[in-house]
Amino acid sequence: MCIAIVKPKDKTIPKEILRVCCDNNPDGMGFAFCKDGKVYIRKYLDDFEKFYKDYSKVETTSPMLIHFRIATHGGVNIDNCHPFKLNNHMALIHNGIISGYGDKESKSDTRDFIDKVIGKISYKQWKNPAFLELVGDAIGYSKFGILDTEGNAYIVNESKGYWTDGVWYSNKSYEPKKVVTTTTKKSNESSAVDDNYDWYSANKYKSIFKCEHCGKIFYIDGYTYYHKCPHCSKYTTENIGYQIKGKDYIYDTEYSHWQYAY
Question: Which helix (H) or strand (E) is 137 found in, with range?
C-alpha cells in the first residue's frame, strides 16, 4: 500500500516519523504545498535526505500533502510517485487500491484513475462536501488527500485514517515496526524477532488477516497492509499478526504486546 499524510500549516512532523514512513513505504516519496496562488509538487525516488531538506524549507509555509509509496500497480519510477496534478488548481495523493485501473509495468492505478476519470471533473466540484462523500463511496477503502491553490486541504474518507498530533495519516505505517516477543509454555525464556525487512527476507512468513467484512481469518505470503479477502472478495486492512516458521504470532491490543497464539 502507501501512506498519505495531510498536514495543516501550523503543524510539524518529526524527521524520525517521516523516516519511518519512508522505510515502511520505500518506492518513492513526495510532497505538495501552495504559494502565491499556485500548488507546487516535489517528487523523489529514493533520496530521503534530499526529500527532507526540501520539505523542511516549506513545512510551515502552507498546508501540505505528503506521500510515501509502496508500488502495487505501475513501475517504481518518478512518474508514479505522488502527489499528482489533479487539475490546474489541485494536487492529489492516494492511499489504497482502485480496482480496474493501472497495470504492473507502466501506470499506477492512481495515475490511470486521474487520467480517465477524476481529472476530468471541475475543480469547483471538489469544494462540495456532498461530492467528496460520493467520491469516498466510489473508491471504497481508498483515501484521497487534496490541496488547492487557495491553501485548502480536503480529505476523502477521512474517518478511515488517523489524526495524530494534529496531522492526518491514512494508516499506521508512520509507527515504528513492533518487536515480536515469543514465549513458550515449556520455558520462561523469551526471544525477540525484529519486525523488519531483515527477517522478512531471511525467513518464510505469512501475514495473518481477519477480514473486517466477513470476519474470517486468512493467510497471505509476505507482508502487506491491504489485501483482498479470498472468502468474500472485499479488501481489508485488518492485519492482526504473522505466521513465522509455522507459528502464529498475534498482536494483543489489550496488553500492547506480541504473543504466541497457542
Answer: helix 129-139
